[in-house]
Write the structure tokens for this entry.
Amino acid sequence: YNTILLAMAGGERIFKLLDTEPEVVDTPRAEPLARTDQGARIEFQNVTFSYRPDRPVLRDLSFTCEPGQVVALVGHTGSGKTTIVSLLGRLYEHQQGRILIDGHDIDAITLESLHAQMSLVLQENFLFTGTVMENIRFGKPGASDQDVEDACRALDCLDVFEQLPGGLHFNAGERGDNLSLGQRQLACFARAWLANPRIFMLDEATSAVDTHTEHRLQTALERLMAGRTTFVVAHRLSTIRRADLILVLEHGELIERGTHTELLESGKHYADLYTEFVRLSRGR
């Protein structure tokens, strides 16, 4: 009887979720986004967004990212970094302004074609019940075992998975509980690599990886980002020094932009953040 009650309660929640209509859907004018061999050109034109009407998260935000550029988003918690990534993936609808991808309004692009050309690696990684190989293949369901191995080898993490009992066929467990945080994150990186996106987004993606593993990933990530338009959200300023464009945000507003060297020489907000980062690093 207790099992039946638990099943009924779970069933109600499942059916409620399945019956929920999505808030973001294709507009009548939406067309597929053409795929090319280079990264996408992305423009934010006077974009304003808020989760609550009385509290804007982004205010009149404008910037341009050329194909293949790496854009780093820097700022304190709550400055709007993750929101930019969410709007780019069209997880939410912006209220004002325009977001253009290759010159097309984002709301005039079909969601399926948009998401097919994106990969997003989050701080809170998620793995499904199944083997490591099955979780990596989720990024490209038709990939062969050799394709998965090649992706891991390209990221220089194949040896990490080969050390597991059964290698890539090791059972990751529910939510990846049988793997360490670093191993889960590496699996997510390999999954993103396998998807071969034009737009690559990293949201605090190296936070669960130790310094040694992060160092191993840097060269592989540079190859992964080459030719792709990449957005990097990170508190570790060491991961964004080589960005082509750094956007410094404060309370939803863009207060500085430039390269790492240019922003340091300006001696403003970014320079203060970098000084704090160096001080904390030496303190460890």
Notes: Residues 2-19 form the longest helix (18 residues). The first strand starts at residue 42 and ends at 52.
